[in-house]
Amino acid sequence: MIKAEHLSKRYRKKQAVDDVSFEVATGKVTGFLGPNGAGKSTAMRLMLGLDNGPGRTTFDGKRLHKFANPAHVVGVLLEAKAFHPTRTARNHLRVLAAAGGVSEKRVDDVLELVGLTEVAKKRPGKFSLGMSQRLGIAAAILGNPKYLVLDEPANGLDPEGIAWLREFLKSYADKGNAVFVSSHLLSEMAQMADDVVVIGKGKLIASTSMDSLVSGSGHAGVFVRTSAESKLERVLKQQKALYKKLNGGFTVQNMKIDDIGKLAYESGVPILELTKHTATLEEAFLELTAGAQEYQGKGKVNA
């Protein structure tokens, strides 16, 4: 696994990363989430030894610089346009392959994997952001590494590209590898990630499974709708239920569907709808990071 311990980084008066520890397991995609300015990119750079600061990160128990050939251990994408603009896409990967001890045949394989075979002889300086991201992903997987560390790889991808990336990363993890990926596309992360690490203002907020994060949200529970709202509300209060009004009914957080159904029947409350309400990742994320937003809008635009 990847084990990050007590990562910290300070820039003058700003504590960018503050004693952050977490683990990234193999066989899974782990999402790295946080508001703008939370410290995600800095934490990734600390993990890879590209920034100096207290703490340490090990890959299978070893620091990255201890491996004879790091390209076969960790594939990295931190910057979409990290290439020479006038060197062809294929030659860019050939240079990286030669430096990392990777066969030239692998260059053509990864170009095909990311869908860039037809533009392999073109100079990437004029590539769109989405094409640049694909080239960056090709570079990251060149050494067929066990671990991928990717910072916002979906930026600039079109809907087809985002769907491709999602399935590609899931299949990469399914082979026993580990993928650690940051993204602001929460709907995509909800479909892709098995585990999540959430930080805000440089501090760790959560490190857990996606299921636990969503099910533990205050937005999760049981939705119940009735034609006798006031009567049902009295019954819920008597049971000391945690509930809130939502969409013409109630979302109950601390009772199961069967218990609510039985209670309503015994109390003579007619039920029109009784369903499990699962919180979205966006709801859970906004709830967790409510006090950790560095940049916030002040309200709606008046028409």
Shape: elongated
Number of strands: 13
Straight-line distance between termini = 52 Å
Oligomeric grouping of the chains: single chain
Average pLDDT for all residues: 89
Q: Helicity range of the residues?
A: 25-40%
* CATH-assigned fold name of the largest domain: Rossmann fold
The portion of residues forming beta strands comes to 25-35%
Under CATH at level 1, the class of the largest domain stands as: Alpha Beta
Sum up the structure in keywords.
26% strand; 4-stranded antiparallel β-sheet; 13 strands; 6-stranded mixed β-sheet
Short description:
The protein is α/β, with parallel strands linked by helices. The protein has helices spanning 40-47, 89-100, 104-113, 129-140, 159-174, 186-192, 210-215, 229-238, 257-267, 281-288; strands at residues 2-11, 14-24, 28-33, 56-59, 74-77, 147-151, 178-182, 195-200, 203-209, 221-226, 243-246, 249-252, 271-277.
Your description of this structure?
The chain is an alpha/beta fold. The chain folds into two domains: 2-215, P-loop containing nucleotide triphosphate hydrolases (Rossmann fold, 3-Layer(aba) Sandwich); 221-277, Alpha-Beta Plaits (2-Layer Sandwich), CATH 3.30.70. The protein has helices at 40-47, 89-100, 104-113, 129-140, 159-174, 186-192, 210-215, 229-238, 257-267, 281-288; strands spanning 2-11, 14-24, 28-33, 56-59, 74-77, 147-151, 178-182, 195-200, 203-209, 221-226, 243-246, 249-252, 271-277. The strands form three sheets. It has a six-stranded mixed beta sheet with strand order 5-6-7-3-8-9, with helices on both faces. Helix 5 runs parallel beside helix 6. The longest helix is centred in the middle third of the chain and has 16 residues, at 159-174. The relative contact order is 0.15. The mean pLDDT is 89.
